[in-house]
Amino acid sequence: MSRTSAPPPTDAVTPSPDSALTQGLKQRHLSMIALGGVIGAGLFVGSGAGIAAAGPSIVIAYGISGLLVMFVMRMLGEMSAANPASGSFSVHAERAIGPWAGFTAGWAFWVLLCVAVGLEGIGAAQIVTGWLPGTPEWAWVALFMVVFLGTNLAAVKNFGEFEFWFAALKVIAITLFLVLGVLAILGVLPGTDAPGTSNLTGDGGFLPNGSEGFIIGLLASVFAYGGLETVTIAAAESENPVKGVAGAVRTAMWRIAVFYVGSMAVVVTLVPWDDPQVAEVGPFYAMLDHLGIGGAAEIMNVVILVALLSAMNANIYGASRMACSLVARGQGPKRLGRVTSGVPRTAVLCSSVFGFLCVLLSYWRPDDVFPWLLNMIGAVILVVWIFIAVSQLVLRGRLEREAPGRLVVRMWLFPWLTVLALLAMAGIFVLMLGQPDTRDQLMATGALTVVLIATGLVRQRRAGRAERAGEAERAVRD
Question: Which chain regions cross the lipid bilayer (predicted)?
């Protein structure tokens, strides 16, 4: 076995290679991170483009993609409960496939999170400059970066506390939206009449733009679910990692059904799918405005700002822990993995700097480098999901033979649903090739993935040769 590979599982939970990290997250932190992880700015704003393309059939699109995400989370939960590690799926890929796979999945995800930090910072700054015109966007991004850099450089419990309250605000907000929407659909909200099915069947029907519109909506819905993986990264630093992962995964189904599928159903029932506001300012704003709720724009701006800041905080955390785990397994520069007082401070700093560099590129090179960067991360989450599914196929059999007691969470109908999920991911790649915008994303992500795989294979072979040379030298001495 190469020195860069993770050890195989045993009956006892194997200490993760990043065990220098502290277990400072409480169960309430982990529960709320899991709950809030599915509520991002993509739901509040990005879903509008999907509705504009697919019409009322967006409900089916979110249902299909949500089912795929449930399968992925169940697979990831099975492996993470058996072997909690802040490297999460990167560690599992290394155990199942080899060091090159852990290297590829881990660093691809790190790039994704760092670029996302920059994008979220830009979005949050745009909201604040709308309130305070004349102030520079980059200064607000820098302020947010400094705040969350400080949060993540301190003890992990500070990150957990910030994320707990951010997630709580998001959950309260979307719950209020859903309650208001259901009351309006039933016709019991003062000043509203029950819409019936007029918005679902009128203006072109349930599938107004045909199969092509549905495909665009389906692709948009798939990428709205990013962020769920963070809970399995955070679980390694919680008081009870196995219990935390198991609880988060087991509640994933109703969270996805309520927050995503439920909210889409409420919106398209109340608001005509072709209302310009749905795509321009977001479906939730359009719903509040349709219900005559004053200050709808400002309410939504506050909610979206909270969602963006929450995502920034979580992504800096996730990127730093992934980098720390990779370095601990010999998959990156050693200095990046230095842990001080239970916190990988160098990794936190580097991840934040990379994110801010992406912000600067949006100003310096907005027409070439920045769009290329965005395309490069466009399909990374699908690449990660494929590694998760393949890893679970391999590790499930190994666990059943060697440590069946560690299968606290089990993937449903194994191996059939795992194979079905892989086929669905392949189908999404085919659909992406058929759309000009997503085709560019797929090609750029493919190039990044190939470079990482090649680098990982070279590193693995060098490590193998070094290990064999070391063994031969020891044999000669003996």
Answer: 32-53, 59-76, 97-118, 138-156, 168-189, 214-236, 256-273, 293-312, 343-364, 370-395, 407-430, 442-458
Give the right CATH number for 27-111+153-296+375-460 from 3.40.50.11740, 2.30.30.40, 1.10.3080.10, 1.20.1740.10: 1.20.1740.10
Look at residue 102 in the predicted model and tell me its pLDDT.
95
Residue 405 CB neighbour total at 10 angstroms:
9
Helical spans, DSSP H, in 407-435 = 416-433
- Lookup: tokens for 94: 């290394």
**Read out DSSP for 217-266?**
HHHHHHGGGTTTTHHHHHGGGBSSHHHHHHHHHHTHHHHHIIIIIIHHHH
Q: List pLDDT tens digits, range 306-363.
A: 888 888 888 888 898 899 889 988 888 887 778 777 788 888 999 888 888 888 888 8
- Count the neighbouring beta carbons within 10 Å of the beta carbon of residue 62: 32
DSSP 404: G
In this predicted model, what pLDDT tens digit does every residue of 122-136 receive, in sequence order? 888 989 998 999 898
Contact 349, 153 (CB under 8 A): yes
Q: What angle do CA 424, 397, 415 make, to 5 degrees?
A: 30
